[in-house]
Amino acid sequence: MKRLIIAIDGPAASGKSTTAKLLAKQLGYLYLDSGAMYRACALAALEQDIAHSDIARLDKLLETIDIRIEYSPDGNKVLLNDIDVTKRIREEDISRLASDISTLGPVREKMVELQRQMGNEGGVIMDGRDIGTVVFPHAELKFFMIASAEERARRRCEELIVKGLEADYETVLKELQERDKQDSTRALAPLKPATDAIEIDTTRLSIEEQVELLYQYVQEKLNKQVK
Ligand code: CDP
Q1: Ligand 1 centre from 168 Cα, in Å?
Q2: What atom of ligand 1 comes closest to residue 102's alpha carbon?
Q3: Which string of b and e fits 120-158 if b means at least 16 CB within 10 Å?
């Protein structure tokens, strides 16, 4: 049976990664989180104290940076130059810096190249902001996940608390809204649904319902391809 490329895009905390992880498990596909790569890149720039305006040092960083997503049964690991940064990149300072650094052309070019290398063979679910529009415009299935800002902030707070990180609802809500605005209005690869994306509003859906809904679309697509 053909192994599809499935793109899931949408704003922060709309349910992309939770859904993608479970759906990938169900289908025996690889789950790739493109946001984690921008986050790792932002962390590398922070550690080396590189300003976003310093294009020369940024170019050098991009030449040498090694970002890998390593499969592990209890959640993928993100390695930055062989160091496990899975936990660190989820902190809120990195969310903001990732959104800033991802406005830059050289950064996007490098990340898109790596993402295409990882996903080209199919049998992959990749989530992010521009997967259906830029990274894999020919993906067989594209989803655009949305949810109200209040629900997304509530979910992100829950996630942060589970990880033992700080979470103030009003601050999280404000930061999500600011980041969505920056991601949607930037010149390069702004967050927007591909014209052939299926919109999924997860505001009132449980995780199980979300996964089941996407799974049905995948089955439908696979059945059509067999015929
Ligand atoms: O998990 P959350 O939805 O909060 O964010 P993320 O998917 O980890 O992405 C972090 C940031 O990376 C986003 O706010 C975007 O600015 C950027 N990003 C991007 O520009 N393109 C992607 N394909 C994925 C993420």
Answers
A1: 21
A2: 20
A3: eeebbbbbbbbbbbbbbeebbbbbbbbbebebbbbbbbe
pLDDT digits (tens, 9 = 90+) for 72-119: 877 899 999 999 999 999 988 999 999 999 999 999 999 999 999 999
For the question of whether the overall pTM of this predicted structure is more than 0.85, the answer is yes
Could you tell me the two tokens for 41?
A: 């890149």
**Contact by Cβ (8 Å): 12, 174:** no
Probe target for ligand 1 pocket from 99, 104, 178, with the most ligand atoms within 8 Å of CB:
99
Centre of ligand 1 from the C-alpha of residue 149, in Å: 16
Half-sphere exposure of 153 (CA within 13 A, CB side): 17
33-122 has CATH 3.40.50.720 classification: no
Contact predicate 156/13, CB 8 Å: yes
Atom 13 of ligand 1: nearest residue by CA position: 99
98 lines ligand 1 (CB under 6 A): yes
The answer to whether domain 1-29+123-227 and domain 33-122 are alike in fold is: yes
Domain ranges of the chain: 1-29+123-227, 33-122
**Who contacts 16 (Cβ-Cβ below 8 Å, separation ≥6)?**
8, 9, 10, 127, 128, 145
Ligand 1 site, residue 99, Cβ cutoff 6 A: yes
Question: Cβ(129) to ligand 1 under 6 A?
Answer: yes
Query: Distance between CA 62 and CA 110 in Å, rounded?
Result: 7
What is the CATH architecture assignment of 1-29+123-227?
3-Layer(aba) Sandwich (3.40)
